[in-house]
């Protein structure tokens, strides 16, 4: 009990300092492997069927000009070529240096077998036309049948899964880090049990530095956040502003987050938007946020979270909004043996 209290004091003090010292120019926090990660990044997912070509390219260029240095992408987003082009052009014109950019890529479900891990990472590097990426994460703990199709299904339309050995996949990722292809390794959508599989793996060389999960004022992840803090794993929060209202994959039992009365009222006090308050809430907890937007006004607004700070009372009040309901449930894969969301956290 005493050790737990010391742990809480340690993190409490750290995040108080964090809250005071954040600036638009310097808002990176340390990772356990000696690297660091900017607390706000731009998510680059867009439905490839409906997103106009060039959206990611234009948005990343604008984001770099705005001050963003962290970009979250994936091979399965089908736009890494645009993101890479924007980054390379901004390096070429002298706006940024490569070492100032933090890019996170993801290992998709069809590439879990160890012999496919490095080719998948090399495909991302080739698409981006970069020599290394800063963070490479296992996108889901759920392996799919390997092959040319990212979403393999049988004749009846059922997804085709593959035997999952997360430790074997992790060892292949460790080899990629040792080869200099990636600076840091992490995971996404892992629950505590799945994290412990990696952390307790015999001969572990590189522990995961981050776990990317849904995290916002309606789904604050208190138990997973506390566990990860104890293990020195940074939480990266996706859907930090809630999500689109697309019923095909979003749980609509949750009302729109940004209309919440408390967030609106706190925003009014600081002459900010409810989105800015929601983002500020997470970064003050030490949670990295990666709001996705291709709307140029919103990209700029989402970055304006460093000129104010929430009081302890406001933080507690916003924590009280937690509904323990996910926007992103991914129920279409809930019959997978490694579906992560059956566990409490």
Automatic annotation (TrEMBL):
This is Aldo-keto reductase family 1 member D1 (Delta 4-3-ketosteroid-5-beta-reductase) isoform 2. The active site is at residue 77. It comes from Scophthalmus maximus. InterPro entries: AKR, AKR1D1, Aldo/ket_reductase_CS, NAD(P)_OxRdtase_dom_sf, NADP_OxRdtase_dom. The lineage of its organism: Eukaryota, Metazoa, Chordata, Craniata, Vertebrata. Coiled coil: none annotated. Transmembrane segments: none annotated. GO terms for biological process: bile acid biosynthetic process. Gene3D superfamilies: NADP-dependent oxidoreductase domain. The record marks 106 as: Lowers pKa of active site Tyr. Pfam families: Aldo_ket_red (PF00248). GO terms for molecular function: Delta4-3-oxosteroid 5beta-reductase activity. Residues 40-322 form the NADP-dependent oxidoreductase domain. Belongs to the aldo/keto reductase family.
